[in-house]
Amino acid sequence: VIDGKGWRSGAPVERRAIPQWFLKITDYAQELLDDLDKLPGWPEQVATMQRNWIGRSVGVQMQFGIEGSDEKLEIYTTRPDTLMGVTYVAVAAEHPLTLRAAASNPVLAEFVDACRQGGVSEAEIETMEKRGMALGINALHPINGEPVPIFAANFVLMGYGTGAVMAVPAHDQRDWEFAERYGIEKRQVIFDPDGHDCSIESAAYVEKGVLANSAPFDGLRSEAAFDAIAVWLEKHDKGRRTVNFRLRDWGVSRQRYWGCPIPVVHTAAGDIEPADSFPVTLPEDVTVDGSGSPLKKMPEFYELEDGKQRDTDTFDTFFESSWYYARYCSNDCETAMLDERANYWLPVDQYVGGIEHAVLHLLYARFFNKLMRDEGLVTCDEPFTRLLTQGMVVAETFYRENPDGSKEWFNPVDVEEREGQHILKTDGHPVIAGGIEKMSKSKNNGVDPQLLIDRYGADTVRLYTMFTAPPDQSLEWSDEGVEGAHRFLKRLWALAHNHADAIRSAGDTLPEENAGEARREIHAALRKALFDYERQQFNTVVSACMTMVNVLNKQEDAALLREGMAIVLRLLSPIAPHVSHYLWHELGYGDDILVAGWPQIDEDALRQESIELVVQVNGKVRAKVQVPADADNTTVEQAARDNENVRKFVGDATIRKVIVVPGKLVNIVAPQSGK
């Protein structure tokens, strides 16, 4: 919702009360929270987002009285230590108290209608201008009985908590802004230990401190006051400690055609029954005209015998995707959702999905798995052992503004740059560059993979997407990058073609001794590639393969070429499977690369008889020396001192210090000789 309108349609948005179906995910809130600790293979970012979404908090549920009435107003707070600083109560526009007052107050009724068209997300609520109206009735403070005014406020949502909040403007920024606007008292009750002003208006603001103006709790620190006030409320039957969750039940109703039909029937008496036969299937002869659910216009679908009617809502599409992974394990089972094969395969070892689903699909799938477990369909607690959240593919966007304020988006392939302007090829008129955004149908900035496959082959497209960025980061699309991936595969092909006979005839002979350095480079690159595969950094796997191809292109030793190509092809087979499979067969390694073993590092190949070290004099590189790989510091230091170029820069000066960094460098510190 942007500026009160749907971003796609431009239609005004308002909140309405309609019958909805829910799944009681809140019954699993604590288990969903606790079991995140069982998922070390998940990105911590996703686990944190789910913890925040579930939002467990410990607080106090209390009852404010209503002046002149026996009614009680339920309020939950995590800060009972600030209770004596309450100077007003804010309730949602849809709260029963508000609606009752609005029935006889046209101005308040107008405010309620305006709130229905306002923001509904916490982000929108946080940034919107805080507005409200007094209901003309007071709440009674649960401890001192003091009357405090009740306001309907646009920043309180009926769907969160009880739809009512106690306001402590001296110690909460949002409450302070509202109080400032409407001239409401700000009563400070939390001070620092020295009694200094530390309210929300003070530069010395502290969240917790020592209570004052809070008899009979003056002098208590915030933590102790939490317990003392909770005990007082429980003793006087006005409140209780409670655990609350931000998580709300999962609304699964959708008023549209696509999605599973909700399999319930409404009787003429208004009762609800399960469908009398399964599966309930959607009709296929349907007209979707954009004016609401077509199912509501199809009595042949919803009208049943005895005045019964089928429910015309359909399930949220997340409902189906919450358990599809399990159905794959027994997809041909005709008698149940799942059979025993599900327990053989589950949980999923490696799951790949966008981080945008962190608190939607991924949370729902965890919930659904626990439902299936409790129904005896699966035995595992969690659906996915490891999770990889891939980045988005992003590309340029271009558009024109329509007279009604909407935008028409054009595909980047239909746009070219002429004299500093972006021009639509079909009509020669300018378009506006909308910046880099993720590829989507709505922005029409996707690239048709079939066009690239037709031109370059599927392996080029796969290699490009794997090489351009780590899988968990965004990939900015580049046609030049696709060309680069294609060139590498052509180099690989040429390498195989040029040495095919030698590779086929080499057999199992070992590379010649003079190929030792090249073989070491290949196995060093293999070590890195295997490590990067484990940490799912496929772009650097491709880099390692490129290194190997560069090394092999300089070799003539048939045995080394055979060994090196066998390593490269197996490493590339998950990324560029078609080229790898074909070359594997053509070079005589076997019929199918998929049954070949994963390449293994030869530790002997990595051993070096000598290594090259950089020698610095007073921090500046002056020489390089070769020393035995197992040389001690004394040997290394002497080799550096004996180097002719080093002696030139040291001269007759007395060396003050020699610093040896094993395997890397030697730094000689000496007075400047002037040479």
Notes on the protein architecture:
The chain is an alpha+beta fold. Helix content is 33%, strand content 20%. It contains 23 helices and 28 strands. The strands form nine sheets. Strands 2, 3, 4, 5, 6, 7 and 10 form a seven-stranded mixed beta sheet that branches. Strands 19, 20, 23 and 24 form a four-stranded mixed beta sheet that branches. The chain has a four-stranded mixed beta sheet with strand order 26-25-28-27, with helices on one face. Helix 3 packs across helix 4 (106-116) and helix 19 (558-572) packs antiparallel against helix 20. The longest helix is centred in the last third of the chain and has 20 residues, at 479-498. The radius of gyration is 35 Å and the shape is globular. The mean pLDDT is 91.
In short:
The protein has 675 residues and is of the alpha+beta class. It is built from 23 helices and 28 strands. The strands form nine sheets. Strands 2, 3, 4, 5, 6, 7 and 10 form a seven-stranded mixed beta sheet that branches.
